[in-house]
Write a structure and sequence with these properties.
Layout: H1 3-24, H2 30-49, H3 51-54, H4 63-85
Helix pairs in contact: 1-2, 1-4
């Protein structure tokens, strides 16, 4: 998996987790869909504009590292949401 794609997935998991936890389950219909589309657009713009300045473009990550980073991202967002709920 490319490093850009991995960062996009991790950012999408973090922001979608926060969105669903604080706003997403209270919104209904079109506002929920618009919020998810807005998050995706923000992440896409961020990854296309800012990441090429700081990271090599075609760096490949191994499957193990990719899976571990995605699992770590899910764990951290769940930990953060749990601590905020206390």
């Amino acid at each position: 998996m490319k490093l850009y794609t991995l960062i996009e997935y991790c950012l999408l998991l973090v922001l979608a987790g926060l969105y669903f936890a604080f706003l997403g389950f209270q919104s209904k219909g079109a506002t929920f869909i618009i919020g998810v589309i807005f998050l995706y657009i923000i992440i896409n713009i961020f990854s296309k504009k800012l990441l090429p300045r700081y990271l090599p473009e075609n760096k490949q990550m191994s499957i193990l590292v990719s899976v571990l980073l995605i699992i770590g991202t899910v764990f951290l967002i769940m930990l953060l949401l749990t601590l905020l709920a206390i």
